[in-house]
Amino acid sequence: MKVRIGSGPMFEMKPIHVTIWNEFVPERTDPKIARIYPNGIHQAIATGIGPYGFRIQTATLEQPEHGLSNEVLSQTDVLIWWGHLAHEKVADEIVNRIQARVLQGMGLVVLHSGHRSKIFQKLMGTTCDLKWRTDAERERIWVVDPSHPITEGLGEYFELQHEEMYGEFFDIPAPEELVFISWFQGGEVFRSGCAYQRGLGKIFYFRPGDENYPTYYNKDVLRVIANAVRWAALPHGAEPVYGNTQPLEKITRGEFP
Amino acid sequence: MKVRIGSGPMFEMKPIHVTIWNEFVPERTDPKIARIYPNGIHQAIATGIGPYGFRIQTATLEQPEHGLSNEVLSQTDVLIWWGHLAHEKVADEIVNRIQARVLQGMGLVVLHSGHRSKIFQKLMGTTCDLKWRTDAERERIWVVDPSHPITEGLGEYFELQHEEMYGEFFDIPAPEELVFISWFQGGEVFRSGCAYQRGLGKIFYFRPGDENYPTYYNKDVLRVIANAVRWAALPHGAEPVYGNTQPLEKITRGEFP
Amino acid sequence: MKVRIGSGPMFEMKPIHVTIWNEFVPERTDPKIARIYPNGIHQAIATGIGPYGFRIQTATLEQPEHGLSNEVLSQTDVLIWWGHLAHEKVADEIVNRIQARVLQGMGLVVLHSGHRSKIFQKLMGTTCDLKWRTDAERERIWVVDPSHPITEGLGEYFELQHEEMYGEFFDIPAPEELVFISWFQGGEVFRSGCAYQRGLGKIFYFRPGDENYPTYYNKDVLRVIANAVRWAALPHGAEPVYGNTQPLEKITRGEFP
Amino acid sequence: MKVRIGSGPMFEMKPIHVTIWNEFVPERTDPKIARIYPNGIHQAIATGIGPYGFRIQTATLEQPEHGLSNEVLSQTDVLIWWGHLAHEKVADEIVNRIQARVLQGMGLVVLHSGHRSKIFQKLMGTTCDLKWRTDAERERIWVVDPSHPITEGLGEYFELQHEEMYGEFFDIPAPEELVFISWFQGGEVFRSGCAYQRGLGKIFYFRPGDENYPTYYNKDVLRVIANAVRWAALPHGAEPVYGNTQPLEKITRGEFP
Predict the structure, then answer these.
(1) Pfam families from the entry (chains A, B, C, D) (predicted)?
(2) To which H or E segment does residue B244 belong?
């Protein structure tokens, strides 16, 4: 679709293609969670970020290739990931495929317990371990980088009245951009919004979203996810060439045995 | 102006307001440079990035308030800065005003010899000194972060056949995002594309553009400047509140003398 | 002094020369504070980090040149800075002198309300503003980078039972190394240990230490300050040369008008 | 061993235990390389950094467990890694063991073609691919962070008259600290000194050292390796605790279904 801004030239407006991946396990095995997310966390997120104008599809663990065929991934600008109980059931081949796509420029937004997913661990190079407590406590998420586009439309902080706690030390590489820090009622803090670059791709880890709480209906949480999708879908440069290469300048050398 | 993407909701497309500031001294005092930039470097840049659809105005040193009144700055999304011979003639009051606007979210793109401008030094906190040589040598600018939106539309590198050399050590804070590194024929390297965040604002330093060479007619250079403007105009978060503040949680304390 | 490790060669052990600067105002004007720090905050810190083997001297605002003559600074490896009420009374000339020394390699450890000192603002390029509340509440300081030498000897966190609160947003450049995050009882978080490099020098900002509380007698606080001194005194490279420079390689160029 | 500095207290001086790992393949299969490194690259490095006072041992691919048993690793403060032809022959179990030790605080210095080693790829999360050319050309390595302890004792740059070229894009996470940038005669640049933190451990990648050239006899190269060992052996904090954890503050909550 082409648009013109003011008297400027025509621009191609490209819609952002988002694939929301969910293991879709707790919502089908635990009635309490099924009541919160009757159609699954992926559908709640899809509905929640729908108004932001993305082209959204979903994929789940039990689908062939976990719903992440080469074709699906090649048409995905940003992949959102939610997993918790079934990390080990994700096939290594699919994990390698996702990693390759991220390095080629696909964005990746990892949510909550996705911190221990194979794909996040693989891209971080660390255990991504942390402290946790499921005690329905209050979380207050503070913006510590208001220059970041992921903070658009938020206030200085927002609150979740009942959430699982994640506490430091969070075993990740130091975020290239630290956007949020959480305060927890029980006395902990957590780096809750962490941005990275890997290859041509952008990665954002966002903490909230335990399946026991209706977090993915919260408007600020949805705003952050939508903002993160837009940020991760920003344009990137040309695909690099690797390997043996000819010189661009004449090489003159002195004595070499 | 409102647009719709696919079947999504209507979006407000906001044009980006760019002010190009130029000291406009060498083009009026040196006939050789006047031949290259007869209407000034600012006009060459304005023409060159025009096709990207920005709302562009220019400002120069000799105008009242250097053309940077509170009104102009408050309506500027991104300020582009070129200066060389007249850094000391820029009034401190205007420099402070620009700094304040950057901290409130205005983008700033500093070009070439602007590295020693008062505003860049003030925002960096260092001397911003470097090595230099005006010898019309070849510069090859390599992309070292192809995930960055500022590299959109570029190849793996681009060349300028005749440019001034800038060499390390460049006395700046380590860039938060290092996008380009230059190779020079005379044997030096330089961190040529350096991105920073300060307050709500984004800053990009881009090396090329000595007045002795027709650099601002080069399509890759113009592309980088246009990309930098878009990046620096990305949305930001809410303006922070500072100072004395009431607690958000009840404070209970033990014995305190 | 020369030492040998095992059967290795002799090494020169160089003592670290530390200058502790204090405005020394509240301790002399407020009896309540004088009771906590009868000899001044600088003396409490000097006593507290004494066992770490530094060569320590102190300097205060009312001394000639604020005790920071060229001679003193040239013999200082690391400068510790505490100020609060009298930031504006520090002469710009001395501030410029300190900045120059930091860029030449002197370490700088800025404590608590020193966030609004002229020297810290000048080196950061931002307002360094924040939220605050003096309400004797509990602060829990979490280690978020246990790889950092400044965390040596600490546990996963340490607590101060009564401290002033500092809250985000803290208007600083994103720390190059974020070492500590504080949790406050009243609901805020704060980036409490922030490491930077400027020129050849290293800078560490450490949050705790309001004059109303006996913070500088806390063993973990003293440990952090001592660790920060050692880190800021690590060796650095050669002083750079700036300005016009001869090529290191032969420059051959094509047609240039 | 205990020492006293000046009139300060006694300190425990701990020697740094270094293990130099080499696949030790090209030196035994290619007579031309055997002439340069008759006892292997590991021995050349061991001899070269010997004067810096480390406790050095070596390990090679063909040894049981590649010479990297749990006992050896647990007593290693810093592991130096050289590999090229036999990356795939390194057992995954040993790679996992090294990763775990790095996360627990062991330093890792990866040299030259080690960029494609399993351990470096695993810790980086990327392909670590690059451009290369074996053409005996000149490399000039520029210091771009003279505040870094790894630059101690170096000039502003140093030269290697004949080296293999490595060119950008180098597919690594953006270095947390970028210390060196190489200039190559053939027209490329490369981020040659890259520092990272992972868990409690520090990692340094250093580019030079192709087996075809006598690079590991160069005094500046040896100085960098020795400096990197010291940096990677700096103290770190306490080992974190992960998993389910009790609150440190009383949690009071409102209505929760």
Answers:
(1) ThuA (PF06283)
(2) strand B243-244
End-to-end CA separation in angstroms for chain B: 62
Residue C208 pLDDT > 60: yes
Query: Residue D27 gets which letter from DSSP?
Result: H
Residue of A nearest to B5 (CA): A15
State yes or no: pLDDT of C6 exceeds 60. Answer: no
**Residue B179, φ and ψ in degrees, nearest 5:** -105, -35
pLDDT at A34 over 60: yes
Domains and their CATH numbers in chain A = 2-125+192-232 (3.40.50.880)
- Give me the count of residues in chain C: 257
B190-204: pLDDT as tens digits? 999 999 999 999 999
Nearest to B188 by CA among B128, B121, B140: B140
Cα D138 from Cα D157, distance rounded (Å): 13
How many angstroms away from the CA of D171 is the closest CA of chain B?
9
First to last CA, chain D: 62
The interface pTM score, or ipTM, of the predicted complex is 0.95
Q: Is B34 exposed, middle or buried (0-12, 13-18, 19+ CB in 10 A)?
A: middle
Residue pair A47/A41 in contact (Cβ under 8 Å)? The answer is no
Residues 6+ apart with CB under 8 A from D55: C6, D15, D16, D17, D18
In the predicted model, is pLDDT for residue A256 greater than 80?
A: no
Rounded to whole angstroms, the Cα distance separating B231 from B237 reads 15
* Residue C240 per-residue DSSP state: P
Smallest Cβ distance to B245: which of C133, C176, C254?
A: C133
Give tens-digit pLDDT for D1-19.
566 655 555 556 789 999 9
D177 contact residues in B (CB cutoff 8 A): 174
Q: Where are the beta strands (DSSP E) in chain D?
A: 2-4, 10-12, 17-22, 55-60, 78-82, 107-111, 131-143, 157-167, 177-184, 189-198, 201-206, 243-244
